[in-house]
């Protein structure tokens, strides 16, 4: 193994512990969302009628973030928990399971969308990253509004349904905008290399091919071998891929070393694939996140 590959493997092995920020207790009905993407979607459905607490802070990794004892207690006191499911929230799933055992109602978003299996040799099982296809997000809005109406006291079911329809129209507009942004890309440019396998749904929706990923899995907790990385570098050279898309929550150095080893001119492009950003950083909401990603993907692959 040469020095560059060794440095890359060390970089992958170093992970920062991400702890969810404590939420302010306001009293009254409360929905607790595990991820900030789902928290934003839920807030758009309920508006100001219900407090929506999001456990995952901006810029965090949904696979590895953890929560405090106070936040774990908040889960058990929630009127409704909204989780992604499909194995995404690896660091907090046991807390969600404990709350479910205590009888807290839980809406698992992954149970209400058409789920893809990982279509790669180095990842298996259900792909949890359904939000990269806006049509899948639209699928869950009606069931989400129904779950909130059923379990959260004091909400207006009719108003919830109307709000869900308004947001569904905004998501449909996003879908059309992304399709238009990608329309100019020829088929030989619709090839993606990412930090880990996160774009299966986007690829299916907008006719892309996923060449490979630096982390050989659907989770950021995996680590590649030297042979995995050498194989990916070869695939990048053979496919003429002009860019590697690195998630904003992951070290850019990982993709940079891979690009160096591939021996080709490859741009490293940062995307917001699994987490919303802080204010003013380009991905404060789900709609903004997807538009930013679409613009960056289309620009890098032209």
- How many domains make up the coordinates? 2
Indicate the low-confidence ranges by residue numbers. 1-25, 217-222
Strand order of the largest sheet: 2-1-3-4
Strand count, sense and barrel status of the largest sheet are:
4 strands, parallel
- Radius of gyration equals 19 Å
Order of helices and strands, N to C? Answer: HEHEHEHEHHEHEHEHEH
Range of helix content: 40-55%
Task: Report the structural category.
Answer: alpha/beta
Subcellular location: Cell envelope
Protein name: Zinc/manganese transport system substrate-binding protein
GO molecular function: metal ion binding
Keywords: Metal-binding, Signal, Transport
Description:
Belongs to the bacterial solute-binding protein 9 family. Keywords: Metal-binding, Signal, Transport. This is Zinc/manganese transport system substrate-binding protein. The protein is of the alpha/beta class and 302 residues long. It has two domains: 30-175, Rossmann fold, CATH 3.40.50.1980; 177-301, Nitrogenase molybdenum iron protein domain (Rossmann fold), CATH 3.40.50.1980. It has helices at residues 3-13, 36-46, 69-77, 93-101, 134-151, 157-183, 200-206, 226-239, 252-262, 286-301; strands at 30-33, 51-54, 80-83, 106-108, 191-194, 209-213, 243-247, 267-271. The strands form three sheets. The protein has a four-stranded parallel β-sheet, sandwiched between helices. The protein has a two-stranded parallel ribbon with strand order 5-6. α2 (36-46) links the parallel β1 and β2. The model is unreliable at 1-25 and 217-222 (pLDDT under 50).
């Amino acid at each position: 193994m040469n020095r560059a590959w060794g440095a890359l493997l060390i970089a992958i092995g170093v992970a920062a512990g991400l702890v969810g920020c404590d939420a302010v207790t306001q009293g009254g009905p409360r929905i607790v969302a595990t991820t900030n993407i789902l928290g934003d979607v839920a807030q758009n459905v309920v508006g100001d009628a219900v407090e929506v607490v999001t456990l995952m802070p901006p810029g965090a990794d949904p696979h590895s973030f953890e929560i405090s004892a106070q936040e774990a207690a908040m889960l058990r006191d929630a009127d409704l928990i909204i989780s992604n499911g499909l194995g995404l929230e690896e660091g907090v799933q046991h807390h969600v399971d404990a709350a479910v055992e205590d009888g807290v109602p839980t809406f698992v978003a992954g149970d209400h969308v058409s789920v893809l299996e990982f279509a790669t040799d180095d990842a298996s099982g259900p792909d949890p990253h359904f939000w990269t296809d806006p049509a899948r997000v639209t699928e869950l809005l009606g069931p989400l509004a129904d779950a909130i109406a059923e379990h959260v006291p004091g909400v207006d079911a009719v108003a919830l349904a109307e709000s869900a329809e308004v947001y569904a129209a905004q998501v449909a507009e996003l879908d059309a905008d992304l399709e238009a942004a990608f329309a100019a890309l020829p088929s030989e440019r619709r090839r993606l290399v990412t930090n880990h396998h996160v774009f299966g749904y986007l690829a299916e929706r907008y006719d892309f091919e996923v060449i490979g990923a630096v982390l050989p899995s659907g989770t950021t907790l995996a680590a590649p071998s030297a042979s995995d990385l050498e194989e990916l570098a070869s695939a990048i050279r053979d496919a003429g891929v002009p860019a590697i898309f690195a998630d904003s929550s992951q070290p850019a150095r990982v993709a940079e070393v891979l690009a160096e080893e591939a021996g080709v001119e490859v741009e490293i492009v940062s995307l917001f694939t699994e987490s919303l950003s802080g204010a003013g950083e380009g991905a404060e909401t789900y709609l903004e996140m997807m538009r930013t990603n679409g613009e960056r993907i289309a620009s890098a692959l032209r």
